[in-house]
Amino acid sequence: xxxxxxxAQDGNPRPRLFRLPADRALINRMGxxxxxxxxxxxxxxxxxxxxxxINIGKSKATPLEEAAGDYVDLxxxxxxxxDYVAVNVSSPNTPGLRQLQSxxxxxxxxxxxxxxxAGLARPVPLLLKIAPDLDAGQVAEIARLLxxxxxxxxxxxxxxxxxxxxxxxxxxxxxxGLSGSPVFEPSNAVIRQLREHLPHPYPIIGVxxxxxxxxARAKLQAGATLVQLY
Length: 230
Fold this sequence. Notes:
This protein is an alpha/beta fold. The protein contains 6 helices and 9 strands, in the order ββαβαβαβαββαβαβ. The strands form 2 sheets. A 6-stranded parallel beta sheet has the order 3-4-5-6-8-9. A 3-stranded antiparallel beta sheet has the order 1-2-7, with no helix packed on it. Helix 4 crosses helix 5 (184-197). The radius of gyration is 17 Å and the shape is globular.
C-alpha cells in the first residue's frame, strides 16, 4: 500500500502517467495522491486477509528539514496495522524527496525512524526504498547506514529519472519516474552493489522491469532475496 502521507493530498496535475509501449515502459509523476493516513487506517485497511506492507512518505508541503517528523508520525499511526513499513525516500515526483538519500539528511532520518520503531508496542520490520540513480559510493553509504540503524531490509529500486533507454520515443521527455523494461538493468546493478555490502541473509527486495519469470530469476541471481512487482 502506498505511498501514504500524513494528510490528504491531490498529487500532481493530470495528465501524470504516460505509456511507452514500444519499450514496455511507462512514466509516472503521480506525486503521492492519497486520502491521508487517518482515512487509510480507518477505512481501507481493516480486516485485510493478507500480508500488508505500507509505504510511507513525506508530504509535498513538508520542508526537507522537517521530513523525519512526517515519517515518524506515519510509522506510529500505521505500524499497528502493518506487517512491514517501507520508508520511501526515492520517488522522483515529490520535490526534493530524493535528497533524503544524501548524507546531509539520511543519517538523522534513519535514526529518528529507528528510534520511533523501538518505542512501539509491536515493533514492525522497517524497509527502505531507494532509487536506481545512485553511484557506487552512495549505495555503499546507504548500506552502511542501514546496518548502523538496524533497518531490516532494502527495496531496490524505485523508478529512474534517466531517459537514455527511451530517447526519441513519444512521451520520453515527460517529467517523472520511468519504470518497466528500461529500469531492469539499473535496478540489478544497484542490487549487486548492495549485496557486496550486505551479506546474506540481509533482505534485499528486487524491483524494476520484471516482465517474466526469467527477469525475476535474474533479480535473485543479482543478489535479491525476494522480488516485487509494481
